[in-house]
Amino acid sequence: MGGTDQGRATRRSxxxxxxxxxxxxxxxxxRNLPSDAVINLxxxxxxxxxxxxxxxxxxxxxxxxxxxxxxxxxxxxxxxWFLEPKLEDSIRxxxxxxxxxxxxxxxxxxxxxxxxxxxxxLYAVSPPDQPNPMNVVSAAPxxxxxxxxxxxxxxxxxxxxxxAHGFDKDGPYIEFVTSPNNPNGVIRxxxxxxxxxxxxxxxxxxxxxxxxxxxxxxxxxxxxxxxxCTGHAGSRIGWALVKDxxxxxxxxxxxxxxxxxxxxxxxxxxxxILQVVADGCKRFGSPDxxxxxxxxxxxMAKRWEILRETxxxxxxxxxxxxxxxxxNYFGDLTQAHPGFAWIKCNDGMEDCEEVFKGSxxxxxxxxxxxxxxxxxxxxxxxxxxxxxxxxxxxxxxI
Amino acid sequence: MGGTDQGRATRRSxxxxxxxxxxxxxxxxxRNLPSDAVINLxxxxxxxxxxxxxxxxxxxxxxxxxxxxxxxxxxxxxxxWFLEPKLEDSIRxxxxxxxxxxxxxxxxxxxxxxxxxxxxxLYAVSPPDQPNPMNVVSAAPxxxxxxxxxxxxxxxxxxxxxxAHGFDKDGPYIEFVTSPNNPNGVIRxxxxxxxxxxxxxxxxxxxxxxxxxxxxxxxxxxxxxxxxCTGHAGSRIGWALVKDxxxxxxxxxxxxxxxxxxxxxxxxxxxxILQVVADGCKRFGSPDxxxxxxxxxxxMAKRWEILRETxxxxxxxxxxxxxxxxxNYFGDLTQAHPGFAWIKCNDGMEDCEEVFKGSxxxxxxxxxxxxxxxxxxxxxxxxxxxxxxxxxxxxxxI
Lengths: 398, 398
Hints:
Oligomer: homodimer
C-alpha cells in the first residue's frame, strides 16, 4: 500500500502508449509534451519501466484461451484457495533471487493490489467481538491512503488513530511500518513498541532499484506488490507473506467475502513476469540487459542525479539525503533512489503543493501524509517525457 | 452477488482441466468420478460452459505483451477511470443484443466480481455522517452471502437487518432484490416499498439460459457479473449500471480506496468474450453453434428435465415450478432453468443438507439463506461428471 498509489481527484495528462520510445532519460529534453500540459506527479503510476519491457519483446507475453481458467478455484491444497500455484512459485523464486525477504514457513496470500491486502490484514488481526475498534497508527509522514483505507466504511473493528509518534492510548493496536517509507524513502522500524501491538510491514519499495537490500527480512506480516516491483500496476496483484497460519486464513476469508478471490489472468501474467525478473536478475552487466533491477537502479540513479543538480541550482527546495549502504543484492555500496521525491520548500514558501501547481505540476501536499504543507511528494516513476518536463519547469523556476 | 457464489469451507473434489470432454450431458453416466468422491454442489462454480468455449477454439484467445497495460489508468475521460473502454463497449453491445437491460444514460462501474460492487453500492448510497448505520435487507430466502458482505467489518455506515419481509424499522434502508433469485430462481421485485428505500437489483442470473427475458430492465442500480453470464468466474469481473452519476462516482471512489481499480487483464479478456457472445447470440440454430445462450439453455433444460424425472422417482424431494413465459430473446414460450435447484426435503427429513451429506453430496442448507433447513440449494452449473454423479446418487436414494 505504501506503494499502491494513484490519483483520484486528478489524472495524468493524456499520453499515447508510444510516448516512451525505449531510450533512457537523456536529461532535460521534453518530448511529446506541450509546454502548457499539466504534468501529474501526484500519483505513483510506475510507467517508467515500459522501455525495459519493450526491450524484452515476447518473453513475457501471455496467451489465454477462452476455455481456460473458468473456475473460481486455483488450488485445492493451498489455504489460499484462489492463489495460482505458478504465482506462488514465482514469488518464492523472486524473493530467493533478490534476497529481500524470507519465504520458508510463510503462507502466501494474494490480493487485488496490496490495498486489498491491507484491509484484509486489518480485518484478520482485529478481534471481531471487542467492544471498541483497534487503533491503527503509522508514523508521520505516513502513506496518504492509510487513513481512508482504515476508515472508509467506519468499521467497528478497527479505526485510524493517526501518527504513531503521538500514540498514547492503552490496549492493542496495529502499526503500519512502510519501509522504505512512502513518501520519504527512509528505512523504518516500528515506533510504538508496546505489548499487544501488531506490526504490519508494508515493503512495496523494498527492491534493489529503490534502496540497498541490507537483509532478507523475516517479519510476521510483510506486504509486497507487483506495481512497484515491476511496474505492472494495472494488473492489481499484491501478495502478503504471513507467518501465522490463522491470520493468513482470516485474510483469505476477507478476500473470499469481498471479491471471491483475485483475477486469474493477472495472477498468471504476473507469475510469468516475476519468473522472468527472477531469472534475469541473476545476470549482471549482461549484454541482453534483462536485469530489471539494473535497468531500474540506473534509471532512478540518473533521475535523482538530475533532480539533485536542478534543485541545487534553484536553491528553492531541499531534498532528503540517504546514507551509503552495502546492498547485498548488487554487492556494492549504494544509496537509496526512492520512487518519490519528498521535497521541502525553503523559507517563505508555506504551501509546497501550490508552488508546483503554479508551474502546472501536480504533486501531493505534505498535509496528506500527516505532515507539513511545506513538503510535497513528487513521483519519480513517470515516463521520461513527464519527468523531463518536470525538470524543465523546475529549472525555469529560478 | 446473487451469482458470485463459492465454497469457503469446502472445495470441489479434484478435477483435471480435461475432465469435461466437450460432449453435452448424456444423462446418468458418471465419468472420471470415483464412486466415493465428494461432489461439491455447495458453491456455484459455473464450469458447465467449458465445452462451449472449447468448441470456439481460438476465437476468444487473448494475447498480452509484457509492456502493455502497465498503468493504473484506463481512460482519462470516463468517471470510472479504471474501466477499459473495450469492456464498456462490449457490455453495452451485449445488453443491446440480449435485450435484458438498458444502458443508455447509465454510467458503467466495473468491479472485482459483483461482490466488490455490492460493497461499493452499500458505501455509495449510505450517507457517511449519519449517527446510525443504514439497514440492509433482502427477502428470504436471500443470497447467503449478503449478511456477511454487509457485516464483515461491522461498518458504522450500514448493517445487515435480515429478511425484508419482517422489516419494520423506520428510516432509510437498502433492499437487495435478486432476480431471478438466488437460491430459488424466482423473478422478484422489492417487498418493503417505503419512502427512503434504495433498491439494488442484483441481476447476475437475468440471462436467457436461466430465465425468460421478459423486458429490458431500467432500474436505478443494476448489478451483473461475467461469472454467471459466460462462466468466466475466475476473471472476477462484475459491472454495475448506475443511473445517478453521484452514486456511480462514490462507487468508483470505493474501488479506488479498496483496490485502486480492477485487473486490466481480466477486463480485456472479458471484453473480448462478451463481444463474441454478443455477436454469436444474434444467430439461432447456427451450424457453428456459437450462440452461448442456446448452448446454455439446452444444457440447463436437459439437466432440469433429468433432475425432475429423478426427483419424481425418489418421491423424497420437491422442486419449485416455474411459469411458462414469453422470452423476448428466444421469441418463444419457455420456463426458467435456474442455476441452482432449491430442493425441499419431504416430510420427516428436517435437515436437507444432512440428507445429501449422507450421499457425499455437499449442498447449502436453507438455513444459510434465512430460510428453513428443510430446504437446500444445489448447484446445477457444475461440470457434467459432477452433475451426473449427483443424479446417480439421487437415484440410488430411492
